[in-house]
Amino acid sequence: MGSIGAGKTTLVKMLKSLLTKKGWSVKNVEININHGFSYVLTLLLVKLLGYRYVSNYYWSLRFGNLKFFCKYLQLMMILDILYSPIKIITTIVSFKLYCKIFRKKGIVIIDEHYFTSIIEYLYHFAYSCQRLSWIMKTFYTVAFHLASTILKNSKVKILYLHTTVNNSIKALNSRDKTNLIDVKHIKYKSLGIKVIVNMIEHHLRWTEVIRFRIFKVPKDVIDIAKNLSKIL
Description:
It is a single chain. This protein is mainly α. The protein has one domain (8-231): P-loop containing nucleotide triphosphate hydrolases (Rossmann fold, 3-Layer(aba) Sandwich). Helices cover 65% and strands 11% of the residues. The chain is built from nine helices and four strands. The two termini are 17 Å apart.
């Protein structure tokens, strides 16, 4: 978990490579807003309506037609509620079965988290749509419950990567080839994740939080991955 552009996905790839070489079976899963069912529908809508691609498909809808986006956001949440549990449960169950059959030691790396999708949706309702629907409350309840269930395990470690707003802006410019940057969103997401990580650390004593300050990507992330692969 962490700031936009802090190198989370880069760290996942590096860790997967290093741990695999050490004999681990590694499965990485990404859990975020607009995945699976909603991603496919959003992609089709952007293509059919002819909106210019911006950063990702659901942001393309937001910048293309805000009024439509606010209505569509509720459908996105319903689709995410349906898809996310299926994705994480089937992935973990099948991976555990695989490790048991082939007698391998396994590790699941979750890139982003249910908490991240909660923050994303809260942001859009607070600043883009300016109203909170009952669907948002339902999504929050389901996502928070699933996230909390995953964390009720003594073998869970949370890797928290934090970087500056300027680094996040540069990362978005470089990664998504766009100059349409919502700085308020970057700050909101960074603060929201920081608050959640602090809450987890305070209330779930058995869950270890490892914090990293990122100044240069990928240099810092590569060094972190090498050090982590030695202690995991």
